[in-house]
């Protein structure tokens, strides 16, 4: 089949110089690709002038809802993607990681977006900073979508997940995408992309697809654009050094293959749960996707005394691997993605053999249970052992992107740390120990060199996602050799596509711009008690000040008896006076909060449906018996949730009779709309 690009809302037939894509199973022709005929200047203009405005017209919350709908649409149609995935050499299990994993990433990001992002076109980042003594000049940071394009260049190993892990954050941020999948598995990515277009959920220009080379696309990038790349260090360096990237300071985020490690702790000897978990995880990471994962374990570190036991146990487990045509039910590992990849793996194994010896598997003669070993790009799992890893060099800088790992013995934790650091930065490492001290030492020693560390032991193994599974809520990326980027991490991934800007001005101006109350801004008197006003009629800045209430010694003692909180500062005058923070007996902080609620709450049924939390609570000054308190309650921010209710954030300040602030916090309530009341 001829794979079309998608440019300016049109499917573009591949032009001249067609490249063939063949299945690694039997070399059957599965696709023809070329980006000749694609007008990259027009594509960039369409994304910038049509896609960007269309996405930015939607609020963050609306975009999160669209993302959820898109995930559901893809999920209902995933079986067709699974059939194509098998042709890449992936087993059904591999396909689930790619397809269900990618769709699950969208669901997860959509859920976080709906909970955490506002129904606005900007984000407020952090707290307001007071910049003047009198309070008339303040500052804060906002984040707004870049007015450019996100160019996504993806790797071959996860054609669906790799595309969707980038698409989700970009869509939430409101930045249009030009997506370029790797050629060898482009037919799977293109099929998933076609479903995205057919869903009709995204505005015109929000997504475009390049099948084939990127032509002169980079020549049309500006300082408002981004490039997110996944793949090899060589290609990443070439793209990052493009003159337009440098001249225009185009944001470049790379996630590159790395020499990830698994470390068996010195306490986790043969027979321990951690030893068994270590062996199981290494074998799995070697064989899932035929070892073609950027997170796969390449270096296997074990205490020198147990190296033989590790090799023996790993060899026994790898012997269960059934290599062959992934369309056969009994097959557990398919071929690598192409004959070229097979040759590359063999060449790199030969390099490693200059410093290590093969202890399991035959790189030249794979044991194929189902399929033609002459036609298919099959490899057997290959385990090497380097007896002197401290003196070696190539095992620390050459990666075999296939079912290959090298066992490295170490003498003590200090040497293990030094060996892991020789990888010069990785996406992930996993530690297998039940010793808290050893775990702390290893984490401290290697954390600066990794984007993610997973600590696997008997307590978490049952529910652990495993060494090689990036999660959408956590960082996926790593320093140094791994590229220095972060593709995921919840809202961190969204922030790549946003510009952080410091705003400075009067509290009133900042409040008006951000639609959130800023202390010092004008306050307004609502027409009635704010708890009686429906959500949509509340105005940011609506404020009431309550009458005063005296806090008596009897109140304090009653609260202590009623709650059981008889802390000495509330009950013992001499002991309290000896405390540098208190002048003598003081009221419980939570008594003050209870009294505050009693002062500002309207008791009758009304639009307030629920009080569901307090944020940023601070007790600033103690209250002694006989003092009075009162409350200032201000509508700080409003966020619609659905057609029936919305979230109201209230700024609450308790003051004493002298006007001094006693406590501050944000109160969160759910308030009904008038139509639902």
Indicate the topology.
Layout: E1 5-7, E2 10-12, E3 19-22, E4 29-33, H1 40-56, H2 60-75, H3 78-87, H4 92-116, E5 123-130, E6 138-145, E7 150-153, H5 161-173, E8 177-180, H6 186-199, E9 207-209, E10 226-231, H7 233-240, H8 243-247, E11 251-256, E12 260-264, H9 273-287, E13 297-303, H10 307-318, E14 323-324, H11 339-352, E15 357-360, E16 368-370, E17 382-385, E18 404-410, H12 413-421, E19 426-432, H13 436-446, E20 450-456, E21 477-478, E22 485-486, H14 491-495, E23 498-505, H15 507-514, E24 543-545, E25 549-550, H16 553-563, H17 568-571, H18 573-578, H19 589-600, E26 608-619, E27 628-640, E28 645-656, E29 661-672
Parallel strand pairs: 7-8, 7-10, 8-9, 10-11, 12-13, 12-19, 13-18, 14-16, 17-18, 19-20
Antiparallel strand pairs: 1-2, 3-4, 5-6, 6-23, 15-17, 21-22, 24-27, 25-27, 26-29, 27-28, 28-29
Helix pairs in contact: 2-4, 2-5, 3-4, 3-6, 4-5, 9-10, 12-13
């Amino acid at each position: 089949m001829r794979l079309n690009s998608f440019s300016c809302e049109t499917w573009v037939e591949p032009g001249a110089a067609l490249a063939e894509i063949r299945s690694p199973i039997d070399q059957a022709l599965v696709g023809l690709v070329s980006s000749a005929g694609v007008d990259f200047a027009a594509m960039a203009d369409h994304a910038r002038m049509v896609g960007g405005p269309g996405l930015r017209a939607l609020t963050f919350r609306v975009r999160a809802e669209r993302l959820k709908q898109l995930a559901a649409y893809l999920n209902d149609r995933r079986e067709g993607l699974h059939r194509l995935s098998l042709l890449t050499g992936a087993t059904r299990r591999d396909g689930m990681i790619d397809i269900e994993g990618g769709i699950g990433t969208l669901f997860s990001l959509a859920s976080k977006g709906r909970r955490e992002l506002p129904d606005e076109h900007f984000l407020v980042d952090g707290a307001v900073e007071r910049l003047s003594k009198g309070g008339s000049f303040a500052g804060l940071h906002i984040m707004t979508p870049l007015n450019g394009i996100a160019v996504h260049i993806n790797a071959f190993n996860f054609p669906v997940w790799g595309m969707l892990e980038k698409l989700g954050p970009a869509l939430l941020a409101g930045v249009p995408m030009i997506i370029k999948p790797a050629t060898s598995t482009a037919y799977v990515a293109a099929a998933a992309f076609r479903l995205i277009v057919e869903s009709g959920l995204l505005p015109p220009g929000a997504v475009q697809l390049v099948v084939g080379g990127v032509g002169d696309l980079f020549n049309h990038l500006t300082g408002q654009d981004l490039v997110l790349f996944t793949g090899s260090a060589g290609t990443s360096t070439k793209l990052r050094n493009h003159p337009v990237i440098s001249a225009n300071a185009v944001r470049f985020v790379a996630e590159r293959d790395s020499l990830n490690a698994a470390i068996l702790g010195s306490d986790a000897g043969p027979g321990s749960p951690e030893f068994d978990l270590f062996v199981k995880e290494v074998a799995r990471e070697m064989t899932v996707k035929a070892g073609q994962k950027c997170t796969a374990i390449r270096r296997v570190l074990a205490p020198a005394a147990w190296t033989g036991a590790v090799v023996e146990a790993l060899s026994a487990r790898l012997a269960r691997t059934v290599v062959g045509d992934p369309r056969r039910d009994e097959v557990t590992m398919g071929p690598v993605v192409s004959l070229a990849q097979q040759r590359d793996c063999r060449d790199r194994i030969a390099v490693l053999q200059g410093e290590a010896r093969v202890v399991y598997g035959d790189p030249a003669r794979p044991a194929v249970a189902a399929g033609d070993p002459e036609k298919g790009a099959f490899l057997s799992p290959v385990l090497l052992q380097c007896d002197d890893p401290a003196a070696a060099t190539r095992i620390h800088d050459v990666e075999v992107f296939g079912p290959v790992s090298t066992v490295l013995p170490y003498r003590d934790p200090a040497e293990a740390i030094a060996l892991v650091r020789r990888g010069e930065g990785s996406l992930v490492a996993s530690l297998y120990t039940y010793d808290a001290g050893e775990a702390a030492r290893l984490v401290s020693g290697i954390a600066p060199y990794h984007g993610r560390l997973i600590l696997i032991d008997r307590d978490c193994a049952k529910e652990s996602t495993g060494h090689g599974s990036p999660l959408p809520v956590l960082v996926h990326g790593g320093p140094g050799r791994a590229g220095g980027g972060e593709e995921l991490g919840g809202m961190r991934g969204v922030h790549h596509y946003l510009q952080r800007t410091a705003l400075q001005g009067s509290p009133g101006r900042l409040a008006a711009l951000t639609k959130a109350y800023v202390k010092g801004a004008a306050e307004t008197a609502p027409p009635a008690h704010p708890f009686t006003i429906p959500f949509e009629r509340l105005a940011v800045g609506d404020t009431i000040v309550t009458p005063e209430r005296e806090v008596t010694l009897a109140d304090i003692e009653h609260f202590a008896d009623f709650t059981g909180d008889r802390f000495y500062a509330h009950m013992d005058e001499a002991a309290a006076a000896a405390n540098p923070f208190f002048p003598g007996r003081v009221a419980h902080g939570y008594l003050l909060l209870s009294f505050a609620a009693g002062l500002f709450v309207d008791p009758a049924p009304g639009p307030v449906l629920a009080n569901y939390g307090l944020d940023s609570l601070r007790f600033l000054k103690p209250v002694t018996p006989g003092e009075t308190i009162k409350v200032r309650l201000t509508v700080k921010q409003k966020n619609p949730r659905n057609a029936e209710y919305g979230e109201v954030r209230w700024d609450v300040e308790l003051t004493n009779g002298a006007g001094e602030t006693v406590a501050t916090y944000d109160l969160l309530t759910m308030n009904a709309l008038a139509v639902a009341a």
